[in-house]
């Protein structure tokens, strides 16, 4: 059992957080429901219109938002039900970025994705985006709960996209324009009512893997230089954001059909990740040994940075033991005060529309377990 004194509880005044990230939170994506899957297939076959598909999406999103409320979550998402991919759909909506079919999919540990990708063909920008309307619908049904919007981090365009030389021959110009595009995107979501925005990013966890660092070098980049470029781009995009906008980042090791890509603890990126990014919170994968130990959390210097421990796996349906999770939270308090910790699953349940190898009821049981543990630990 995690212990905290009355003095600590009074001093933090945040053990029951009223603002995001919440003590019990979740990364965002949820298993696509049967009506969503059927409607998407019908739309692809030309059997229903885009308007009819959206009506089905609205109905199912409303249902799963109510489910999130019922199990006790304070922040609600649309489950990314309107997307095929957690990142490509958003990136393809940026000015200067096109969606295309690649020669091969992304190779995971034991699976490969469909062969889709994005490429930068013109100058980057943000003038409009369909996901602004997606957020507005979520916000309209959130009620007293906080509507959380998830988008890929700026780092993901470089990590997952091809940059055509005709568009950018100067890498500094590319990163500069990327940061400005995201700065405009952040303002657009804020103007639409968003007060809880999450950036999803696999690059930071991939840098923790020597194998992935070697692949970075093979692509002509020094890993340390790219880490610095990514950090500056993110911070430039976040500069001057409104005080009442919470921005977090989820650090992912790959999540497709319950498979993964990268292994390795956070040590290699810890100093920059925990003390060099102007974020309000970090969602960290800590569901198994591939994530390493909590020791890198010693680089958390800021008292206003929330660390969301992803101790509940979204990859498999077996429910974690409550006492085991509480012991791991207690272990993390050796490096970060309890008042700066939160709990969530390690990733979403469906980073792509295929989803992880988990039943829908197992998904809800996992999220319910997160809430139950958080209510006991941070009471």
From TrEMBL:
One GO biological process term: methylation
Alphabetical list of CDD domains matching this protein: CIMS_C_terminal_like
UniProt keyword annotations, A-Z: Methyltransferase, Transferase
Top-rank taxon, per record: Bacteria
Family annotation (InterPro entries): Met_Synth_C/arc, UROD/MetE-like_sf
Listed Polar residues bias regions: 1-14
Pfam families documented for this protein: Meth_synt_2
Descriptive protein name: 5-methyltetrahydropteroyltriglutamate--homocysteine S-methyltransferase
Residues of the signal peptide: none
Record's keyword annotation contains Cell membrane: no
Enzyme class (EC, first level): transferase
Transferase recorded as keyword: yes
The EC number(s) this enzyme carries: 2.1.1.14
